[in-house]
């Protein structure tokens, strides 16, 4: 995944589909039409240099980050709160702090509730 070259669709009809995801932060384009599909039964990773948009994409998948455009689908259906609650996500950034324990973090990060 290279910044500004997120157009490649790996395959269609996957278990998890990212369809033309777009997200800007001011002048910064974090996601520029990111599309890929994860086939069922596979371990899947996506790589890219710093700033390529990996974290933004993960946050969009689990519903923590809003999108300017595009859609995330699970088994063909848009990902909503019901599906998000079943996704485990360990962010790169520290998710738990002494003042913000597991239960309150789980409400902030619903996707941590696998
Ligand atoms: N909340 C935010 N506010 C402003 N800019 C942001 C925000 N989140 C991400 N960005 C910007 O969006 C771009 C993509 O960031 P992102 O964190 O998704 O990349 P990344 O691939 O996860 O990078 P890294 O490998 O450093 O973790 C970067 O230019 C980043 O500075
Ligand atoms: Mg990141």
List the helices and strands and how they pair.
Layout: E1 16-25, E2 28-38, H1 54-61, E3 69-74, E4 77-78, H2 81-84, H3 102-108
Antiparallel strand pairs: 1-2, 1-3, 3-4
Compact description:
The protein has 114 residues and is of the alpha+beta class. It is built from three helices and four strands, in the order ββαββαα. The structure holds adenosine-5'-triphosphate and magnesium ion.
- State the helical fraction: 10-25%
Q: How much beta, percentage-wise?
A: 25-35%
How many domains make up the coordinates? 1
Strand order in space, largest sheet: 2-1-3-4
CATH superfamily: P-loop containing nucleotide triphosphate hydrolases
Please state the average pLDDT score. Answer: 80
Main sheet overview: 4 strands, antiparallel
Structural class: alpha+beta
Order of helices and strands: EEHEEHH
User: Which radius of gyration do the C-alpha atoms yield?
Assistant: 14 Å
First-residue to last-residue Cα separation: 27 Å
Give the second-level CATH assignment, the architecture. 3-Layer(aba) Sandwich
> Which cofactors or ions or other ligands sit in this model?
adenosine-5'-triphosphate, magnesium ion
Question: Which descriptor suits the 3D outline?
Answer: globular
What CATH calls the topology is Rossmann fold
Instruction: Count all strands and give the number.
Output: 4
Number of DSSP helical runs? 3
Name the CATH class: Alpha Beta
| Spans of at least 5 consecutive residues with low confidence | 7-11, 110-114
């Amino acid at each position: 995944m290279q910044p500004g070259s997120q157009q490649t669709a790996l395959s269609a009809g996957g278990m998890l589909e990212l369809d033309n995801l777009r997200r800007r932060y001011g002048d910064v384009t974090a996601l520029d039409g990111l599309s890929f599909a994860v086939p069922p039964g596979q371990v899947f990773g996506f790589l890219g240099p710093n700033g390529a948009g990996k974290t933004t994409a993960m946050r969009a998948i689990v519903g923590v980050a809003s999108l300017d455009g595009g859609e995330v689908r699970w088994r063909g259906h848009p990902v909503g709160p019901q599906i998000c609650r079943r996704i485990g996500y360990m962010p790169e950034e520290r998710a738990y702090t002494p003042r913000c324990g597991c239960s309150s973090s789980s409400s902030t990060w619903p996707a941590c509730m696998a």
